[in-house]
Amino acid sequence: MYCARCGVELAKSEKVCPLCGLKAYHPDLPAQTGDGLYPHGEQMEEHVGGKVALAVITALFALAAALTLVVDLKTHGRVTWSGYAIGGMLTFYVDVILPCWFRRPNPVIFVPCGVAAVTVYLLYICLKTGGHWFMPLAFPVCGMAALLLTAVSALLRYLRGGRLYIFGGALIALGGSMMLLEALIAWANGVRVRFVWSPYPLGACCLLGGLLIFTAICKPLREALRKKLFF
Fold first, then answer.
1. Separation of alpha carbons 6 and 164, rounded Å
2. Helices 40-76 & 81-92, crossing angle to 10 degrees?
3. Which of 4, 18, 94, 222 might form a disulfide with 117, Cβ 3.0–4.6 angstroms?
4. Which of 175, 188, 170, 176 is closest to 111 using CA atoms?
């Protein structure tokens, strides 16, 4: 028997779900008829209200960007600090606000778009400051982040099971990327590659990822965690 609200498996003797407090449902009892829990009209009103709120937030972002640009032009006669502020606002909008416009945003699409927005913002900072760190450091790091996050999002979305395998493999890949990150930092600074700090997060990520994979393989351990910790 399972809880009708949160899906936790319940013992036959339990009368109330220990996680959410919902009364246990017994299939032997006759089903009762009545209105649905979520009337269609309320859903439509909530959806329209959310769109209005997003429109107001978008207008506020546009107004803040315009005021920032006007103040910068009036003060310096050209774009100086306002570029950083507007770039940060646009990056935040793409990463956080833009997916909210869709009822069911697809993370496989929006995750790489969000990383791309961060990448473009870092490129702008590099060009404005006259730096040379974008191509040897920022671009590869953003590429690694995009690949890892997109792969995890796609696997979680299109695979019905195996979440422990996915998260375990993602942690191991994250640990390996730390060593690549240290190597990229050394190459960007023109020094010899020496793995000083990256083995520590690599070891921790491999340990945690291995534990998740072992939990996925060991069925008794997985069942015990699911019943005791709702894991």
1. 19
2. 170
3. 94
4. 170
